[in-house]
Amino acid sequence: MTSAHALWFLTRGTGLVSLLLVTASIVIGVGSSLRVAGSTTPRFVVAGLHRNVSLLTVAFIVVHVVTTILDAYAPIRLVDAVVPFISSYRPIWLGLGALAFDLTLAVIITSLVRVRIGLRTWRGIHFLAYACFPIAAVHALGTGSDASQRWMLAVLIVCVGIVAAATLMRLWQIRSERAPLALAGTAMVIVLPLAGAAWANTGPLSHGWAARAGTPTNLVGTKTSSTSSSTPTKPATSGLPAPPYTAPITGTISETTPDSAGNTIVTISAATTGSAHAHLKIVLDGISNGSGGLTQMTGNSATFGPSSTPALYSGSVVSLQGNQVDISFSTTSAAPPQLLVNTTLQINFSAGTITGQIQVS
After folding, report:
1. What integer is the mean pLDDT of 117-136?
2. For the chain, what are the domain ranges?
3. Contact call for residues 37 and 43 (beta carbons, < 8 A)
4. What share of the chain is helix, strand, coil (3-state, %, to 5)?
5. Phi, psi (rounded to 5 degrees) for 232
6. At CB < 8 A and 24+ separation, what contacts does 261-269 make?
7. In degrees rounded to 5, what are phi and psi of residue 204?
8. DSSP tally for the chain: helices H, then strands E
């Protein structure tokens, strides 16, 4: 596994764990308010558990943010992780993640200095914890790599159900003291999940979401119009062997004549031999090194698929080191919906040919 893949998996894993920890933190906090532990468990024990889970949540979010920045796939800066809605990569959906991070920090920091700011101020800010969860959930759907996976959707549904139930219990507790707030909160708990489900069905779970979400053009595997249909396509059989598998590959490589600024386009068109019968096309934009190849890559795209639909999967290069090219692919019309293709290529620029091997996982 390359370092790029390790960062990608770590980003995905810490994002999921952070969502689970936010859920747990809210449930423990509500349980503490409702005093569900009874007389057998001292309140300071529950409070300590709540504080430690919250701090652990921040730790996982920090790792999630750092690995996202270090991963070279998307142009995400440190400031993008803190200041919402300014990123060039999926600004709205990444911005919601930054907003959830800021709200979480506000809740944690004010909890640590509660005696200095007063109970009323602390309690008002602490209610932001309830806003963190829906914002984080929309962030996960809007820009998460696993948003369309059934297991991820199941995790989200369970977390939403748990948080909704805990929130309703908390609102029931304060109904006599703050009836308008309890009524408005109950309406939101009912309406928000329904609205989120409707949005997800026509947004992140539909075809062409990557482009509509604000992914830079050079990171979208194929040219995708922002006006493309949002109707999900019917799942189809991919026609490829079930991963993981390896196969030899042969093909051609070509390079356009560099322009005045040295920009050129390198195109690799190849096909596997043997039983896989897959087609791979990689297009690299960048600065020519003058002897075949690039000194700097400025953009790329890739397609992968069987002979019948060679562009079934679309993706982009996540790592390019010498003759090693690693590509992340996704599709909304075949199973599995995501693939990692690792290639080892022997390139002959003078003859315009390539040979090598691919590993598909």
Report:
1. 85
2. 3-205, 245-360
3. yes
4. 45, 25, 30
5. -60, 135
6. 261/287, 262/287, 262/288, 263/287, 263/288, 263/298, 264/288, 264/294, 266/293, 266/294, 268/345, 268/354
7. -60, -25
8. 10, 8
Reduced to 3 states, what is the DSSP secondary structure of residue 337?
A: coil
Among residues of the chain, what percentage have pLDDT more than 90? 19
30: three-class secondary structure by DSSP? helix
d(CA 169, CA 252): 64
For 5, other C-beta atoms within 10 Å of its C-beta total: 17
Q: 274-299: per-residue pLDDT in tens?
A: 655 788 999 888 888 777 677 777 88
Give the DSSP H or E segment for 51. Answer: helix 43-70
Please compute the mean of the pLDDT values over residues 75-102 and round it to a whole number: 89
| 338, β-bridge pairs | 330
- In this prediction the pTM is 0.61
Residue 185: CB atoms within 10 Å: 20
Angle at 322 between CA 317 and CA 328, to 5 degrees: 15
pLDDT in tens, 33-61: 776 655 566 777 777 888 899 889 999 99
Angstrom distances, CA of residue 280 to CA of 249, 251, 253, 270, 312: 9, 9, 12, 5, 10
Examine the pLDDT at 28 and tell me if it is beyond 50: yes
Angle at the Cα of 320 from the Cα atoms of 252 and 64, rounded to 5 degrees: 140
User: What CATH code is assigned to 245-360?
Assistant: 2.40.128
Q: Is 286 helix (H, G, I), strand (E, B) or coil?
A: strand
Contact 165, 150 (CB under 8 A): no
Least confident segment among 12-26, 91-105, 222-236 = 222-236
DSSP 74-125: S---HHHHHSTT--SSSHHHHHHHHHHHHHHHHHHHHHHTHHHH-HHHHHHH
Amino acid at 113: V
Q: Cα(125)–Cα(218) distance, rounded to whole angstroms?
A: 41
How confident is the model over 185-193, as a mean pLDDT?
A: 91
C-alpha–C-alpha distance, residues 199 and 238, integer Å: 27
Give CA–CA dist 18/12, Å, rounded.
10
